[in-house]
Amino acid sequence: MRGRMFSCGLDAAMNVIGGKWKALILWALHAEPRRFGELRRDLDGISEKMLIQQLREMECDGVVHREVFHQVPPKVEYSLTPLGQSLNAALLPLGLWGDEHLAAIEDKKKQQAAA
Question: Tens of pLDDT along 46-58?
Answer without folding.
Answer: 999 999 999 999 9
